[in-house]
Each structure stands twice: as C-alpha cells, then as structure tokens.
Write a structure and sequence with these properties.
The protein is an alpha/beta fold. It contains 20 helices and 29 strands.
C-alpha cells in the first residue's frame, strides 16, 4: 500500500555518483520454497497474502493485512455496496481456513463522501447520525465480516502531508481523532472484543522534519477529550511502518511507547510493513544505493528485522508484501514475483516463521562486531546472530545443549559438533561481514548486517555428560568433574548443592569448587568435603538479601556431644533429632525430615541396602549440627530459619517448601562484588574475601596478602 522512503531524505532521489542502473541483469538462480511451515505463534505475517494462497499457506505467516477500499465498495453513493475490488469474501474465508488471520485496513474514501478528496464529510456529526457516512460505512463493514475479521486498522499513513506523493490524508490531527473515535464506537458496538488499531505511520516523515510524531500529536488532542480515558483513547494497538534498516525495529518503537507513557498508556505496537527493495532483480528498475539491497541482503534483512521485532516486544511484525503486484517506480516489494517465482527473502521468511516464532522471552545481545537475538522457549533455545560490520566475525556461543543445528537463511542446516571432555563447551560460528552499505551519504554505514545464522538447540539448559566423570550444566555454564562430580552425584546432586557456579580453583591451599548452596573442597588425601561457610572467619552474618537469620547460639553448640566422646555417633544423631524439629510453634517447618532425607540410599549407595545410621552420618557431613533454634524472619512471618554448621534451612509457609539457602552464591558475590546484596556488603566490608576478584591483578587478587595460597584466575568465568 505504500512505498518506502529513504532514511534521511523525504523524496528518494538517485545520486549522480552512482553508476547507471544496468538493465541487463543476469537471471537470478531459481529459488525453491521450503516445505510447509507452521509457525507456533501469531507474531509474523505478510501483507496481502491472499494474492497467492498456496504460497501464503506454505510461508508460515499467521496473519495477513487486507485493504478495504471505501471507494470500491461505495463508489457513487451511500446506498451502494459492491465487492471490495482488492479482495473477495472468498479470499477471507480461504485465509481463515489456512490458519492465516485476516486484519483489515480501512481507507480510500470515494469522492462523494469527502470534503477535500481524503477527509470524510460530516465527521462532526454524532456517530449514530445517518449522514455520518464514515461511521455508517465502517459499521456495515465490521458487521459484514463479524466472526471473520476481528482487528481493524483505521487508515494508512495519515502522517504524510498533502505535499508528499505518499499522502493519503489532507486533514488535521483533530479530524483524524474524529475518524478514529467514530470507528472505535461503531466497531466496539458490533463486538466489544474487536480491536481498533491506530493507523500505521511511517515514523521517519516526522522525525526528518524534527517534529512530534503524528501519533503523539493526536494523543495530545485526545487527552483533552473527557471521554478518552473511559474509551482507552479510542485504540487497542498502534501500527508502525519501518523499512530498510533492521535496527530501526528496536529503536523507533521507543518513541511510540514514550508518547503513550506520557498519557498513562501501555498498548501493543505492531509493525505491519517492513522490507527493503532489491536492486539486482530483473523486475527492479532502480540502482543500488538509496537504502536498497541485493536479493541476498534482502533475505538477511527479513531474518534480522523479524528477530529484532521479537526483542522489541512487537506484537505483530509483517513483511510488505507477498507478491509484487503493480511495481511502482521500479521498486518490487514482493517476496514473490508476479510470475509466481519466489525470491530468497520468501525462504528467509519461512526460516524465521519456523525458528523465530517460538513462544517465550526474547532478548537482544549486542557484542563487538555482531548481534544476537536469543529466544528461550521452554527446553528449546534459538539464537539468531549476524555480523554488524564489514569484517567477518568468529563468535563463540556457550552450548545450551549437547546437540545443536546451525541453520542458514536459505534453510540449509548442519549439525554442530557435540561438546566432549577436553574441548570447549562453546560453539564456534563464523559470521560473514555485512555488505549493504547503501546509505548514499555514509558508505561506512551498513544498513543490514551480514548473512545471519540461527543456532537451534533442543533440551537447552539440561545438564549433560561430557565424559563418564564430567557433567556440564548449561544453566550456569560450569561443569562438575572428577572427585567433585563423584561427591556431587553421591550426595544428592542438584537437590543438595544446586548448580556449580565456579571452576575448580585454589583457595587458601585447597582446591575448591563453588555450588549454589555449598562450597566443596579437596582434602589432602584427595577426598571431598565441605567448607563451613558460616564459621566466624567466613560468613557468620545474620542478614543477607533482605532476610534475617538466627545468630550462632554458643550455648546450644556447646551442649552437643564432643567428637571422640563415648557413643558419639548415636549421641550426636540424637542431638540433631532433639534440636531439628518438624513442627515448631505450630508451623510444619520439616527441619528434621529435611536433614534426614537430604541424602538417600539411592544417592549414596545405588543398589545397596544401608542402615539409618550410615545415612544419618552422611547428612551430618552435609549440614553439621544445629547451631541455633528455629526463628521467624522479623520482616516476613512466612519465613522460618534454622542455622546449622554448614547451612541455613529455610521454611516458606506460602509454599510449604523447606530447603537450604544459596550460601555458595552469596560467598561468590562477596568475593566478586557481582550481585552483592547491600546488607551483606555492609556487614562484610572488612572480610578477607570482600571484593577480591580482579582480572587486572596478578592471580586475579586485589589483596593477595589476605588470601594466602590462592589463585582466582578465571575462577568465576563461565567455562571449564
């Protein structure tokens, strides 16, 4: 419905420095569509997909935008009702049958119904007036397609002023608000569940004129209308049209969100038009330059723009359009040519629909020379990545699972080597440099990144074995190996220790490894034990991360049987049972049961029968004896804590769960300064461990004299 404008100019012009367009372009290689794609969410769509129903269905698009031209339905009078010349009711029915949701955009008024060729007459009349031609037309249209079209975009690009060749609106912002209000009331009158969408605007037209966005100007006027708040400012979502530069998909929506926040609004943003014009296509009649691209670069654009739309929180992101149709100004926009042959961008859309439409959270990571979009969808992780500059880049992506595929924008895929012991747990991916430097005013700027790749990992985040004696944990990026892994696996594993959060390293003469709940140490005989994290010289504190724990109870500790005393084994277990209650103050804290069942027979002695005393000894090894009575957190009555030599049990009344606190994580925070809770820092700023971690110092130690025989080099850097 529209044509893109160049990023920094209002009217696209051909630079005299560019070579003339070569009409004798070589015939491009034939591109075959991939097998049918079924996207998992409604994020991605294509404008006017009905033009080729089979290719639309095959593409993976979940919605399409269809224009309803008022001047074709009522060309001569309000009593007419002719078929929409742009599409038929059969097109709408076919789209629904194929799982492609139709979205209507309403515009193009007939001459008889306008006052100046674009603004409908009688907008100042009440919505229910028979002479409010616009309201009557929209109401009848909404009723005709009730149950088929639930979302209506009100007009197209009203931000272009009448002096622009792309203008569709010669009215004021006040008049557009009237247009929107009438549409809101009649569409909601047909069905309250239907969505009314603010017109798609171009963004750059206003930005280049250094003026407020048309959208913001209308909102400012609406804010003075006493009915606006009760009617949600007369729209459910706002549409934006962005072309040529994928990065704008993340930057431009900020202005729309800012305009909404000013008025207390937070509504979905759509981008129903995205694309870049290819110049090396036989249909194209324009030169390279002017923010255009090659066919190959256009395919890269599709992947990058749709991926970034996920990170920008765009509810619907669509490509303009499926087929060329009329090629205006020599600029073809279709993913498919009019002869039915597909461009590489069509296949790229299929790839995006298959891999980038997964449900889940998406994040944008910016690195030196390359970008990544990561989508975590349950046990599946997808990472789209591309170089941002002209130089090729070698990237290393930490493995999220044992098996992964690398997919190119043409849909071809290769299996990545599985990580094994002795190798890196990162996938090495080489990214080609960017080539689309078609900003005529700045050839050093690459409007599109290099050819993208997609790393697809199933069972992401699940631990896996690198060897019989080493397990890797993608959740934290560290592994547990050798004697440490043997101890981990025979003492309850994740249930007891949580994930590893460090490499093995030297701390005060001993080789240690940090886990979320505990810190393991290798003794001089090669066996594994645990640090007493709550000892006076380590972390004797009572306030961490907003929680308050009971302090060390010296009298209780002294009442415990002394090691080596007669019948010490049975007496110490009796002491634990007497002082680790399951019910305290009427609350089912389950401290005793948690102590007794931390390590099971299946953990410690698989396939063997063991005595209660043996298991009790192992659990004593993990927890030590109780060193406090149970106590409520004074700031949270739902929390009850009990202190032990090597841990703190935490009962949460709201969930009924009892578990150990993440003391290993807190000691790591104390050493590194990363995610260090303020209350812990205030108590520990004189500790020998406090903020010791510094990669710029020898042995990565800030004060080596305070931690003798210690080497923190890479200790907490992700890896093995």
């Amino acid at each position: 419905m529209r044509r893109a404008i160049a990023f920094l100019c209002l009217v696209l012009s051909v630079s005299p420095l560019l070579p003339p367009w070569n009409a004798a372009l070589a015939e491009p290689a034939r591109v075959e569509p991939l097998p049918d794609v079924r996207a998992q969410t409604d994020h991605f769509g294509i404008v006017e997909a009905f033009q080729s129903p089979e290719l639309a269905k095959r593409s993976g698009a979940r919605w399409q935008r269809i224009a309803f031209f008022w001047n074709s339905i009522q060309p001569n009078s309000p009593t007419e009702w002719l078929p929409n010349h742009n599409s038929t009711e059969g097109d709408v029915a076919r789209a629904l049958a194929d799982g492609i949701k139709p979205i209507g955009v309403i515009g193009n008024p007939p001459a008889w119904a306008t006052r100046n060729g674009s603004v409908p007459k009688n907008l100042d009349l009440p919505t229910d007036s028979p002479d409010n031609y616009w309201a009557r037309f929209v109401e009848r249209l909404a009723r005709q397609y009730s149950g088929q079209i639930d979302e209506w975009i009100i007009w197209n690009e009203p931000d272009f002023t009448p002096d622009s060749p792309l203008s569709t609106w010669a009215g004021s912002e006040d008049e557009y608000l009237q247009l929107l209000q009438h549409a809101w009331f009649v569409i909601k009158g047909v069905d309250q569940r239907k969505k009314v969408v603010f017109a798609g605007t171009s963004y750059w037209f206003d930005v280049n004129r250094k003026q407020k966005l048309f959208f913001e100007r209308v909102l400012d006027i609406a804010a003075r209308d006493p009915r606006s708040a009760a009617n949600y400012f007369y729209f459910d979502a706002v549409d934006v049209h962005l072309y040529n530069v994928p990065a704008h998909v993340t930057s431009a929506p900020w202005a729309y969100r800012s305009a909404m926040r000013k008025h207390g609004l937070d509504k979905p943003i759509w981008i129903t038009e995205m694309n870049v014009v290819p110049t090396d296509d036989p249909v194209s009649k324009v030169p390279r330059g002017g923010y255009r691209a090659s066919l190959d670069e256009q395919a890269s654009y599709v992947i990058q723009a749709l991926a970034l739309a996920r990170t920008a929180g765009i509810q619907r992101a669509g490509i303009y359009k499926l087929m060329d149709g009329e090629v205006i100004g020599g600029e073809p926009y279709g993913l498919v040519r009019n002869d039915g042959s597909v461009r590489p961008a069509y296949v790229a859309f299929q790839v995006a629909a298959r891999y980038l439409s997964l449900p889940g959270q998406a994040r944008h990571e910016k690195h030196q020379g390359w970008d990544a979009v990561v989508i975590d969808s349950g046990s599946t992780r997808v990472t789209a990545l591309w170089a941002t500059g002209p130089e090729p880049v070698e990237t290393k992506i930490t493995a999220g699972s044992q098996k992964a595929k690398l997919i190119a924008k043409d849909g071809s895929a290769v299996d990545m080597p599985s990580p094994v012991a002795g190798s890196s747990v990162a996938h090495t991916i080489r990214l080609p440099g960017a080539t689309a430097n078609t900003d005529d005013s700045n050839p050093a700027f690459y409007i599109i990144g290099g050819s993208p790749y997609i790393l697809y990992e199933e069972n992401a985040g699940q631990p896996f074995m690198l060897s019989p004696t080493e397990m890797y944990f993608p959740a934290t990026g560290f592994s547990s190996a050798g004697a440490f892994y043997n101890y981990f696996s025979h003492r309850g594993g994740l249930r007891t220790f949580g994930y590893p959060i460090s490499r093995q390293f030297k701390l005060e003469k001993r080789t240690v490894q940090f886990y979320q709940r505990q810190v393991m140490e290798m003794r001089t005989d090669g066996s594994i034990g645990l640090l007493n994290l709550l000892d006076q010289g380590v972390m004797p504190y009572t306030r961490i991360n907003g929680a308050t724990f009971p302090a060390f109870d010296e009298a209780l500790a002294k009442s415990a049987p002394a090691p080596g005393s007669p019948d010490y084994g049975s007496r110490i277990i009796g002491f634990v049972k007497a002082n680790a209650p399951d019910t305290w103050d009427g609350v089912p804290v389950k401290f005793g049961t948690t102590f007794q069942k931390t390590v099971t027979a299946g953990d410690a002695f698989p396939g063997k029968r063991v005595s209660e005393g043996e298991l009790a000894g192992l659990n004593l090894e993990l927890w030590g004896i109780p060193t406090s009575r149970p106590a409520r957190d004074p700031n949270n009555a739902n929390f009850v804590y009990q202190r032990y030599q090597r841990g703190i049990m935490h009962f949460d009344y709201s969930t009924g769960a009892t578990q150990g606190l993440l003391l290993g994580s807190y000691l790591k925070a104390l050493i590194t300064g990363r995610d260090l809770p303020g209350d812990l820092e205030s108590q520990a700023n004189g500790s020998r461990f406090y903020r010791q971690y510094d990669s710029q110092k020898p042995l990565w130690l800030t004060r080596p004299g305070e931690l003798v025989d210690t080497d923190l080099t890479n200790a907490f850097e992700v890896g093995r």
